[in-house]
Design brief:
The chain has 6 helices and no strands. The chain starts with a helix and ends in a 17-residue tail after the last helix. Helix 1 runs antiparallel to helix 4 and helix 2 runs parallel beside helix 4. It has a single domain, classed as dinb family like domain (Four Helix Bundle (Hemerythrin (Met), subunit A)). With 173 residues, it is mainly alpha-helical. The protein is globular.
Length: 173
């Protein structure tokens, strides 16, 4: 294996590990809400309910990993990610599971050539390479995971975390 292929495989492994770790923490966060209603409470000063964040993350990952890189055929409805309300936690969890499947099906298709190539869609009007955009997707997911964690803590009064960002999950075997 050449050095560029080895480096590309390492990046692919890192992105997969990080994204799946954060996605699992999003799932645990949804499960930690006491009921379906609490995930939709919107306290003053917060821009999004927890359910909105979950719909946005699931749609984002299914679109950018599944549809654009994996050819899954997923059709994103970004406005609905921010306008839907009162979606039960079971449905939110199903959307997260679909995002995980999209990631797990797409990652094995990635190669050094794919990573170095322009991402199939302009992002914010900019042409980015796929490797850069994958790192962006991981950091975007982590950003919203933090928002979700604070939302859950504010609406439930529970100060306990859900084990997000555990280093053990990224430790090399």
């Amino acid at each position: 294996m050449s050095q560029p292929e080895s480096r590309a495989n390492r990046l692919i492994d890192i992105v997969q590990t990080m994204v799946l770790r954060e996605l699992a923490a999003v799932r645990r966060s949804v499960e930690a809400y006491p009921n379906d209603e609490s995930v939709w409470i919107l306290p003053a000063g917060l821009p999004n309910a927890g359910g909105t964040l979950v719909l946005h993350l699931a749609g984002n990952l299914q679109h950018y990993f599944g549809a654009l890189l994996g050819g899954s055929g997923y059709k994103r409805d970004r406005p609905a990610e921010f306008s839907r309300r009162d979606v039960p936690r079971a449905e939110l969890l199903a959307e997260l599971d679909a995002a995980r499947v999209a990631i797990e099906r797409t990652i094995p298709q990635l190669t050094a050539e794919v990573l170095a190539a322009p991402y199939p869609e302009r992002i914010g009007g900019h042409l980015l390479t796929t490797d850069v955009f994958l790192v962006h997707l991981a950091t975007h997911l982590a950003y919203h995971l933090g928002q979700l964690d604070y939302h859950r803590r504010v609406v439930t009064g529970d100060t306990q975390g859900v084990g997000a960002l555990g280093a053990a999950e990224i430790a090399a075997p």
